[in-house]
Design a protein that fits this description.
single chain; 159 residues; alpha/beta; Rossmann fold; four-stranded parallel beta sheet; 4 helices; globular; acid phosphatase activity; protein phosphatase; Tyr_phospatase_low_mol_wt
């Protein structure tokens, strides 16, 4: 990306209450910590499904982020075809999300649709950010570690 153009990034999971709002919060926090906020136009997250529109993130995602001093401020929303014209990167958590995004992606999309795990330098973590919803808090903690690492790698590779 060129230095003079601001980047827009959207993170996507199924319901937009666990993984993608955590990825959004961690990415935004990492950008701020590295003094790169002026390089970004928009950072947000979506779900491929509309099950939770308007809801706050899962309390376990929020508590995991807060434990690491990462603020969370998001209400669930669903991604639409129009968003593929608004974001430079649409970054999803797993293969199912990727398939769903490719299914609704319009022909005139400007977005690079990718798995967040594509920025998994040296295969430090599983490239898939698994849904922790039906598991314990350990899954949320592992997701936090993954999205923190992927965020740092994205910034190192893309800026």
């Amino acid at each position: 990306m060129t230095q003079d153009r601001k980047i827009s990034v959207a993170f996507v999971c199924l319901g937009n209450i666990c993984r993608s709002p955590m990825a959004e919060a961690v990415f935004r926090h990492t950008v701020k910590q590295k003094g790169l906020s002026d390089r970004f136009e928009r950072i947000t997250s979506f779900g491929t499904a509309g099950y939770h529109i308007g809801e706050e993130p899962d309390s376990r995602s929020v508590s995991t982020c807060r434990k690491h001093k990462v603020p969370v401020d998001h209400l669930a929303q669903q991604i639409k075809p129009k968003h593929f014209k608004e974001f430079d990167y649409i970054i999803c958590m797993d293969d199912s999300n990727f398939s769903n995004l490719k299914r609704i992606e319009p022909e005139d999309s400007k977005s690079q649709v990718s798995l967040f795990g594509e920025w998994n330098t040296n295969n430090k973590y599983n490239r898939i950010v698994d849904d922790p919803y039906y598991g314990g808090i350990d899954g949320f903690e592992y997701n936090f570690e993954q999205v923190t690492y992927f965020s740092e790698q994205f910034l190192a590779q893309e800026l």
